[in-house]
Amino acid sequence: MTLIQIIILALVQGITEFLPISSSGHLILVPILTGWADQGLMIDVAVHVGTLAAVLMYFNRDTKGLFLAGLGSVGVMPARRAVAGTLYGKLFWALVIGTIPLVIVGGLMVATGANDLLRTSEVIAATSIIFGILLYIADKKGAVEKTLERMAVKPALIIGLAQILALIPGTSRAGITMTAARYLGFSRTEAARWSMLMSIPAIIASGAATLAKALKVATPEMWLDAAIGAGLACIAALVAIHFLMRWLSHADMTIFAGYRVLLGLILFALIFAGVI
C-alpha cells in the first residue's frame, strides 16, 4: 500500500469510528470511490487497534474503573471486590450484557458469510438515510436528564440489541447505540460516553474475529503499514472524540443526522448514474 492510502484509511477510520456516521460504511466506500484495491484485514485490524487505544486513553478514568470493577466482580482481585458494588461495578456488567447480543449474532454472520453479502453501496446508502432519520427523531424526542448512574440491565440490553443493527454496513455502531440511548432518555453526552465505552468490547471482539486471518497473510511490509495506520487512527480518533463530546455539551445531533442523509442521497445518485 502507498503511504497516502494508509493515511486516508487511518484518518477515515479514526474520525468516523466514534461519530454517529458509520466507520465501516466509509471504509467500504474508500476503495469503491477511489478504485483502490481493498485494504485487507491487516490494515482493518490495525486502524481498529488505533481507535481502541484512543478511547482507552480519552476515557482513562472510566476504563480504569471498569477494569478494576471487572476484576473485583469475578474475584480475581479480592482486595478490589468493593469496587464491584460501585457505579463501575454496575457498568461493567451492563457492558457485558450489552455486548453479548452483538457477539452471538456477529459470530453467526461471520460463520455463514452473511456479512460479506451486505457490503454494497446500495446497503450503505439506504442505512445511512434510514438510521440518520432515526437518530434525528430519537435525539429530538428523547429526554435529557438521565446519566450513567441510571444504567441498568434493561437499558443495557435494549442498547445491546440495537447494536446488532451495526453489523449492517452504514448503520454505524456509534450511531445506533446513541440513538437507543437517547430514546431511553440519556443525555447526549452520556449517550456518547456509553456508546464509546461499549465500543471497547465491540472492537476487541471484532478484532479477535479477524486477527488470526490477518496474521496468516502478514508480511514485514504489512507490519510497518499497520503500525503507521494504527498511530494515525489513534490521533484522529482522539480529535474526533474530543470534538464530539464538546459539540454535544452545547448542541444536538442534527448535524450528524443531516450528514448521513446527504451521504445516502449522494450515494444513490452515484449508483443510478452508474458511477459506482
Can you walk through the features of this model?
There is one protein chain. The chain is mainly α and 276 residues long. The protein has one domain (3-59, 90-272). It has helices spanning 3-16, 23-34, 41-58, 60-73, 87-112, 114-117, 121-141, 153-163, 173-183, 188-216, 220-248, 254-272. It contains twelve helices and no strands. Helix 1 (3-16) packs antiparallel against helix 2 (23-34), helix 3 crosses helix 11 and helix 4 crosses helix 5.
Sum this structure up briefly.
This protein has helices spanning 3-16, 23-34, 41-58, 60-73, 87-112, 114-117, 121-141, 153-163, 173-183, 188-216, 220-248, 254-272.
Q: Topology, pairings included?
A:
Blueprint: H1 3-16, H2 23-34, H3 41-58, H4 60-73, H5 87-112, H6 114-117, H7 121-141, H8 153-163, H9 173-183, H10 188-216, H11 220-248, H12 254-272
Key phrases:
mainly alpha, 276 residues, single chain
